[in-house]
Every structure is written in structure tokens, then in C-alpha cells.
Design goal:
mainly alpha; MetI-like fold; 2 strands; 1% strand
Length: 315
């Protein structure tokens, strides 16, 4: 069959073409509006409850304000006052002490639970739920329970120690033991969260790699350090980042267990922000301190993200 060519004037007219720059522009606008529509449910509360308070805190940090009288602009005097105050260094040191004690304890404990519950253990599903239960429990409830358990006079812990002839410490009433008391309570509550994250990482490891290491004669410890932990590094990185951020923001357990005492031994940064605002009427200083805390957390997070290339193994 042979096609017949029509003369140019008999052909159907071609539809007009849109200009090259017009159609991509419309597509970009349509794509942006679609993305915005999907983001609105999370963007609205993010803006209302995160971005707006941050900007407001930045403005308040430049004021002298007791929450009653009108604020007075003082520029960066609040920042200068905090940086020259020895108490600022002390509260950051207390916060760092908490992190140094809390992070290894919660990670090693969570890893041990994840390794145990990744085996063919009878009733492991029930145990996973039990260990995760403290994570969804109110911090105030957990703190009050541990305050009772660690009571120097009538607490369960010192009572049990007394059965073995051991004199229990003063725990949250002793400046030397107050911070360890908070660390123990915090690690106990967060073990379940770390366990779940690391357990998910363990279950994503190819069993054939472990079998190959076992065939090559690698024992349990060698498989742990040479196979499991390197492949678990993405989950470890996530846990460390989240735990460090939460560690710098520790407040609930301190407020409920010690209130920053005894003698300021557990006064951390967020507790100081609370006290400056509601006890001493120095909202400007409190806002400036919150921005100093934000700068420290941001710097630590950036260092972790940059350093992950050296020790985190993906795939």
C-alpha cells in the first residue's frame, strides 16, 4: 500500500505550539503548588510551634524583660552577661557530665537488649513490648518512681543493698550522687527506644555474611566487632545524634527528681532557662541562653554529620 502525499494547502493545520519557556514555567509552578499542598499539614504546625517561637526568642534575647513590664532593648548585653558569668560554664559542664554518663550507658544497654531479642528467644515479642513500655510512659511518672526507688532512707535500692551489708549512697540528696541518679533513670527510660532502632538495624544485616564469617572460624566477639557493628553503623549514628540532642535538652527528670539541686549539682542548661524565666524574671537572659544552647547543639550535630563519612558504612 502506497501513501499519498497531499499538497501543503490540503494538510490539516498544526496546533499552535506553546513557547519553550512558558510550558516549563507552568510545570514548575504546578509542581511547587503540589508540593506545598502536601507539605501544608506539617508546615503549618512547624511554622507555628517551631519557627515562630525561635524568631520570637531571638527578639526577646535582645531585650530586658521580666514578663510584666514592657521590654527594653539592650542589644547583645544578655549574651555578654551570660558569657562572662562563671555559672554559665558550670551548667554547660553539668549538661556535658550528664551526656558523658548517659550516652554510653543507654547505647550499650540498648545494644545488649537488641542482640538478645534478635535471637530465637521464647516470648521475645512480649519482651520487646515490655522493654519499650517505659518509652511511652510520662517522664514525670518515671522520675517520681525513680525518686522513690532511690530514696536514701526508704528506697528499694538502698534496702536491697542493706541486705548484703552495703550502705547505700544518698543518691539524689547527695551532690556527688545526684547526677548519677538522673543518668540511671534516663537510661532506663530510653533503653527501649535505642533497642528498637538497633534491632531494626540488626534485622537488616544479611545472614549470609554472618554465616560466611562463622565458616571462616570467626567467633561471636569477632563477628560482633568485624561484621555486626560496622553494618550497624547507620543505626548507631542515628541513635548517637538523637541521644546527644536529647541529652543537651535534658529537663523533665532534673525538674522532677532534684530541681537542679542539691546545691546546684544538677543544674543543667534547660533548667537554668526555666529558672531565669519564671523564678528570676529574666526572660531576655533565658532567651539568649536558649540560643547559645541551640548554637552548641548545631555545632555538635554538624561535626557528627561531617565525621560520619569516616566511620558510617552504608550498604
Amino acid at each position: 500500500m502506497t501513501a499519498t502525499l497531499l499538497p501543503a494547502e490540503a494538510r490539516a493545520p498544526e496546533p499552535p505550539r506553546a513557547s519553550a519557556g512558558r510550558r516549563p514555567g507552568r510545570r514548575r509552578v504546578r509542581y511547587a503548588l503540589t508540593v506545598l499542598a502536601f507539605m501544608l499539614p506539617s508546615a503549618i504546625p512547624l511554622t507555628a510551634f517551631v519557627l515562630v517561637p525561635m524568631v520570637s526568642a531571638a527578639w526577646v534575647s535582645l531585650q530586658e524583660w521580666n514578663l510584666l513590664a514592657p521590654p527594653t532593648f539592650v542589644g547583645f548585653d544578655n549574651y555578654a552577661k551570660l558569657l562572662n558569668d562563671p555559672n554559665t560554664g558550670a551548667i554547660f559542664l553539668h549538661t556535658l557530665t550528664y551526656i558523658v554518663g548517659y550516652l554510653p550507658l543507654v547505647y550499650i544497654g540498648g545494644l545488649a537488649l537488641a542482640l538478645a531479642l534478635n535471637t530465637r528467644l521464647r516470648g521475645r515479642s512480649v519482651l520487646r513490648g515490655i522493654y519499650f513500655l517505659p518509652v511511652i510512659t510520662s517522664w514525670i511518672v518515671v522520675a517520681l518512681v525513680w525518686r522513690w526507688l532511690l530514696n536514701p532512707s526508704t528506697g528499694v535500692v538502698n534496702t536491697v543493698l542493706g541486705w548484703f551489708g552495703v550502705a547505700g549512697p544518698g543518691w539524689w540528696t547527695d551532690p556527688a550522687w545526684a547526677m548519677p541518679s538522673i543518668i540511671i533513670a534516663s537510661a532506663w527510660k530510653d533503653l527501649g527506644f535505642v533497642m528498637v532502632i538497633l534491632l531494626a538495624g540488626l534485622q537488616s544485616i544479611d545472614p549470609e555474611l554472618l554465616d560466611a564469617a562463622r565458616v571462616d572460624g570467626a567467633g561471636w566477639w569477632r563477628r560482633l566487632f568485624s561484621v555486626v557493628l560496622p553494618l550497624l553503623s547507620p543505626s548507631t549514628f542515628f541513635v548517637i545524634v538523637i541521644s546527644l540532642i536529647n541529652g543537651f535538652q535534658v529537663f523533665d527528670q532534673v525538674y522532677a527528681m532534684t530541681g537542679g539541686g542539691p546545691g546546684g549539682a544538677t543544674q543543667v542548661v534547660v533548667q537554668q532557662i526555666y529558672d531565669l524565666t519564671f523564678r528570676y524574671g529574666a526572660a531576655g537572659e533565658a532567651s539568649a541562653l536558649s540560643w547559645l544552647l541551640f548554637a552548641v547543639v548545631l555545632a555538635v550535630t554538624v561535626v557528627q554529620i561531617v565525621g560520619q563519612k569516616r566511620w558510617v558504612t552504608y550498604g
